[in-house]
Amino acid sequence: MTTRTPSPPQAQEPKVTPRNRTITTSAQNMTSNPSAGSDARADSRAAIKVELAGRLRFNDRSVLQRLGIDRITDKFVADCFSNFMNNSTHCEHWGKLRDVVRTAEATGRKNEIEMYPPLEYIFNYVEKYEWNDFKGCPGGSHRRFVGGHQQELSSEVHTLGFPSVKPDFSLLDPETPLVDSVKGKNKQLEKDNEPHYSSQWRYRSGFAEVKSISSQGPTSPTKETVTEIVQQAADYARLHMAARPFQLFSVGLLVYGLKFCVAIFDRNGATFSSEGSLENDQGWQLFLRVLIPATHPVIPALQAEASSLGITVPNNFPTFSVSLGDGRGTTVWLVKRLEGGVPEGSVKIMKTAWRSSRRTPEADIYKSLQTGRNFRSHACVAQFDEGGDVGFEDEQKVSVSALRKTMGIPQDGPQEDKILHRIFLSTVGRSIWEYESEEVLIRGIKAAVRGHKFLYENGILHRDISAGNVLLAVNPTEPGSEGFITDLDYAAISDDSPPARNRKVPHGGHITGTYQFMSIRLLDLMEQSAQGLLGDTEIITEVRDDLESFLWVFCYAIMRHHAVQYSSDAACRVQFRDTFGHLRLADIYKSRVSGWPVRNMRYFKKGLSAQLFQWFHDDVGTLLRGSGTLYDWETGFIFTHEALDEMLGIALSRVLQVTV
Questions:
Q1: Could you say which of 61, 64, 89, 200 has the lowest number of CB atoms within 10 Å?
Q2: From which domain of life does this come (predicted)?
Q3: For residue 16, is pLDDT > 80?
Q4: Bridge partner residues of 356 (DSSP)
Q5: Residues 6+ away with beta carbon under 8 Å from 479
């Protein structure tokens, strides 16, 4: 296994059989699905708006250079433009586009749907224009813009994970497969007898977003303001990069009125080209210069991906999970080491993420467990094998700033960077919601709590307990090791064993953890901070916050398990989404304070044993009602490892009374 990649990063992603990929997402997006509708999209884009504030760069010359427009000769562009404008049919479609925009500008009526047909006509013209005459490139081997009205884009498989969305246009790869039939699936395609391409994001090289009024463009009066078109484009870009996990950035064409620009999204924000206008010949020719490399795969800009890593993925593996919403672009793979080009040895976990330059690398945290602490391994903690920051051949780290510098983008001085980080773990697990029985689930969570206690007693506080980091063991090595915790990316290391009770996080900084599983206490403090009620007070994370998160993981696992098992039960899916599908902090806080994870268990009652259902009602419900020995009115839950283990032990004993 290697963590080196050539520079510059222009190679193709490793070949993986698509049917063997299984995609899930981080907790913030696990429950997004077609039925979630506008609320889920609004939640997602509200979160994106916060994430992108201050991370946008406009009028950047390097954007168009990265597209390869300098490889297009002036004569080729002039001929393409002249041929279009001297054809009455072509001009008729251009006139329709112009009239639609002028009407929208005059009336304020947003009617971008009427822009789709003439834009698609222009796109098709460029795609098919005399490719045999362009530097000897073969015709027919072009990418193709397809209107979003034809189909929604989805994930690799139909899971609860990927939302279905409709970019105004998506840019199809040449090898995009056709679906045999659209009968009963898409009335518009069936009516128009249009070809039906795969709806998977992995077959898209880019996308286009359209607005009918020029004032709806990406620029804003302040650095902290993120416009609607940028939010939408960023939403598509995150899905695009998630479905193509080795892709380093995503490219979008933004058309607003008769103006346009190109946006490139990476793991640390977005850069935008200077603005062009279709109201003059110079702007028209620039538009063609953009479309030519976008639709022609010989120009590699849209394929800028990390190269093969010396790793192969066996075809029979459920190989791939991807995390969205956390800004880290986390992907997890089952892999084997290559020996002489042949997969050898045991299966490993390969985790790739874009870590913050302000955090200790996860590999370093794992290594600290192995050196200088007289630290022994534990069956309930993932075992580190090897890994670290990914580097180019010249030893420079693969980071957003390095990639932007390579592409000629000026940097603004010292700031947070995103660095590509890859580790290999020898402990292989499966998702916590993929349990076969309630006993397996409870034993798995109990084991993970045991692993958390072990880390804590040795000076490490995890700080990111979530459904993606609490796993069931595939092959438990001993009784009590049926589950384990992983992902120490946000862990804090202390010289104390155990660490000090309080973990301070600078006020205004990103509190570690996944919102969906964060403790009620932290959610409350973050809400107060967002409203400016805390002043300069620091927000403190404690071990009890991690322990409370295990309860939310328990609830999530049950709901997701049964939402999949009873996929035809609309109530299950709706309640699952309403409980764990929110992205806005205020909505998540309201859900937890109201006790929805426990109250909504009644919708999953048919899949639960009466004993476990009663345990949730009595034991967990008592906590949420603010009574019992584990609750204090001033400080909230008072969890300890022993108390949580005892609670889970009671649940297990009740379940075993049924199964014995």
A1: 89
A2: Eukaryota
A3: no
A4: 418
A5: none
CA distance 129 to 91: 16
* Contact yes or no for 406/413 (Cβ under 8 A): no
Measured CA to CA, the distance from residue 534 to residue 536 in angstroms comes to: 6
Give the span between the Cα atoms of 97 and 92, in whole angstroms: 9
- Hunting for tokens 């939402």 — which residue is that? 563
Helix locations, 458-584, DSSP H: 520-530, 543-565, 570-580
276-277 vs 259-266, strand pairing mode: antiparallel
Q: pTM value?
A: 0.72
Instruction: Look up residue 199 and give its two tokens.
Output: 């709806």
User: Which residues does residue 473 pair with via DSSP β-bridges, in sequence order?
Assistant: 429
CA–CA separation, 161 vs 581, rounded Å? Answer: 10
Please state whether beta strands 276-277 and 418-425 pair in parallel, antiparallel, or not at all (unpaired): unpaired
**Residue 604 gets which letter from DSSP?**
G
Q: 392, 306 in Cβ contact below 8 A?
A: no
Token representation of residue 326: 């956390």
Q: Which of 385, 550, 525 is nearest to 462 (CA)?
A: 550
The radius of gyration computed from the CA coordinates of the chain, to the nearest angstrom, equals 26
The tokens for 215 are 């004032």
- Compute the distance between CA of residue 569 and CA of residue 567 in angstroms, rounded to an integer: 5
DSSP-based three-state secondary structure for 455: helix
Q: Is the pLDDT of residue 139 over 90?
A: no
- Could you tell me if 595 and 552 are in contact, meaning their C-beta atoms sit under 8 angstroms apart? no
Per residue in 114-130, pLDDT tens?
Answer: 999 999 999 999 988 87
Stated as kind and residue range, the H or E segment containing 322 is strand 320-322
361 has pLDDT over 70? yes
Q: What is the pLDDT of residues 572-628, one digit of tens each?
A: 888 888 888 887 788 888 888 888 888 889 888 888 999 999 998 888 877 666 544
Q: How far, in Å, CA of 412 to CA of 617, rounded? A: 54
